[in-house]
Design a protein that fits this description.
Bound molecules: flavin-adenine dinucleotide
Radius of gyration: 23 Å
Strand order of the largest sheet: 5-4-14-15-16-13-17
Shape: globular
Length: about 500
């Protein structure tokens, strides 16, 4: 029988995606494969990408990484959600906290009980019913307390902010210790097999030829193998997500180290603020069709908490994804596969899901097209679900102060999103497809936070009197507040456990 098993695997690129790939593959598939990672010191990594969503914890856990050790080595902090500022009118604010809002009941989501009383003028905003929001606003943090199964603390949902460059370095040590070989040098040519167009080998600047059975393309936006060599093609989504440029700059810490990312809308985009232990990461994401770079940079520099620690850096991007992220014997992971702006911090998560999906569809030398097609189908679905969630933020904005926001409000959106908007507007129901990343409560917090108000609530909540519902809401709020009062501050938690 022909030996069909893949032996040599080359990872192209040593940014976050490259080293996450190397670390995950050597840890989860340690036997029978030779892993080599190629990176060039002449081609820098993207170097931003500092906020995450809770699934990063799961990735680190698969690798057996200790949380405190990881945060110490990456200057990391905790993240309970995102504060959105100025996305509505009159300097409004809202919070997208991870985890749930209230406690869903067997018959209806918590939200519908709240909505009924809100429509009756008996209660105010949603914020007091999310433990993440309350804790974050009060500067508190605690990890989950599984020993308190009936408390909202039992499975507190959180993620991290960290220095992406330090994370890549941390994972490099991890992967090299376990046997991943690293080659420094610039790839100058990709050789394709004549008969089927598969990638056969990479030619380095020094003339060395590196061949492999399977290639993971983590070369960043250039897509060295997936695009330059295989010419896979790209779906451009900038008509829905019109921002195409980011200017990034770190600054000194000013004020407290909050356990949340802040996203502040400006006239043609928005600004991120990500507090780490040693600095704040900032960036202005904007549309160059509606604002020039000099103006965007001025806005950014005028909205820093402290002194800038480096020159601002501009990054151009086209929102979208490769037509196939797996083509022949190349899988694109990270920016080589596609990019959507960091509004909900999803890119590093998608590196993780790309890798986990790859492991479940891992090929042999036959490269069965059915596996490849299904990998691509599931990836497409994931991309478009996240894309819809990002478009939501723009589409339902209430700003009327610039051409950019008016364009966003009036633009047609994908049918899949329109369906969700119609359903919510009509009766407050949120349609969540199977395995969709963002849960109902995420959609709810953004829809409500940006001013969408359903015409009706779910009538099944009328099974309870308004007094009963008021009691239920009051208790939910009181329990959350009691838990948060007992938490240490975010800074004290870091000082005690994971100071760099
Ligand atoms: P890169 O970092 O670009 O790495 C590419 C690698 O390929 C480098 O090592 C380079 O040396 C190598 N390479 C390229 N060409 C060659 C060659 N010819 N020969 C040899 N080596 C080569 N994600 C989040 O999850 N949260 C965020 O908050 C977030 N913010 C972001 C903000 C911005 C503005 C941008 C652009 C991205 C952000 N991301 C964020 C995304 C995140 O930064 C990336 O997903 C992540 O860093 C992965 O990048 P990468 O490894 O794919 O590519």
């Amino acid at each position: 029988m022909r030996e069909n098993r893949i032996k040599d695997i080359v990872i192209v690129g040593g940014g976050t995606a490259g080293w996450m790939s190397a670390a995950a593959l050597i840890q989860l598939l340690p036997n029978g494969y030779n892993y080599r990672l190629i990176e060039s010191d002449q081609i820098s990594t993207i170097g931003v990408g500092e906020a995450t969503i809770p699934s990063i914890r799961n990735f680190n856990m698969h690798l057996g990484i200790d949380e405190n050790d990881f945060l110490r080595n990456t200057q990391g902090t905790f993240k309970l959600g995102i504060e959105f500022v100025n996305w509505g009118i009159n300097h409004s604010k809202y919070f997208h906290g991870f985890g749930s809002v209230g406690r869903d009941q067997p018959t209806a989501n918590f939200f519908h009980y709240w909505l009924k009383l809100n429509q009756l003028g008996m209660v105010g905003g949603l914020e007091p019913y999310s433990i993440n929001t309350v804790a974050s606003m009060l500067g508190k943090f605690s990890v989950g307390r599984p020993d308190l199964p009936n408390s909202p603390l039992s499975d507190l949902s959180y993620a991290y902010h960290f220095d992406a460059g330090l994370y890549a370095r941390y994972l490099r040590t991890y992967a090299e210790q376990r046997g991943v070989k690293r080659t420094e040098g610039r790839i100058v040519q990709t050789l394709l097999r004549q008969d089927d167009g598969f990638v056969e080998a990479l030619v380095m600047e020094n003339g060395e030829k590196i061949s492999a059975d399977f290639f993971i393309d983590c070369s960043g936006m250039v897509g060295l193998l997936i695009e330059k060599a295989l010419q896979t093609g790209y779906d451009d989504w900038s008509h829905w997500l019109p921002c195409d440029t980011a200017i990034a700059v770190p600054c000194e810490l000013g004020g407290s180290t909050q356990a949340h990312t802040r996203s502040t809308a400006h006239t043609a985009g928005w600004q991120w603020r990500i507090p780490l232990q040693h600095r704040i990461g900032n960036g202005h994401v904007f549309s160059s069709h509606f604002m020039d770079t000099a103006q965007a940079q001025e806005i950014l520099m005028n909205n820093l908490d402290g002194r800038a620690l480096a020159e601002p850096r501009q990054i151009k991007f086209t929102t979208g994804k490769r037509k196939k992220v797996w083509n022949k014997n190349v899988v694109a992971i990270g920016l080589s596969g596609g990019f959507m702006e960091p509004l909900e911090s999803t890119s590093i998560h998608m590196v993780k899901t790309g890798l986990m999906r790859l492991i479940s569809f891992f090929p042999d030398k036959d490269f069965d097209q059915v596996d490849i097609d299904n990998y691509n189908r599931l990836t497409d679905k994931e991309y478009s679900q996240i894309r819809d969630f990002l478009i939501l933020h723009y589409k339902v904005n209430q700003r009327d102060d610039s051409e950019f926001w008016r364009y966003c409000r009036n633009m047609p959106v994908p049918d899949s999103l329109q369906l969700k908007l119609d359903l919510f507007t009509s009766n407050g129901r949120i349609l969540r497809e199977n395995e969709e990343l963002f849960p109902e409560d995420s959609w709810l917090q953004v829809m409500h936070g940006q001013g969408m108000r359903p015409r009706r609530y779910n009538p099944v909540v009328d099974q309870r009197t308004k007094e009963e519902i008021a009691g239920f809401l009051y208790n939910t709020q009181a329990v959350i507040r009691k838990c948060v009062d007992a938490m240490p501050t975010h800074l004290d938690y870091i000082r005690a456990n994971c100071l760099a």
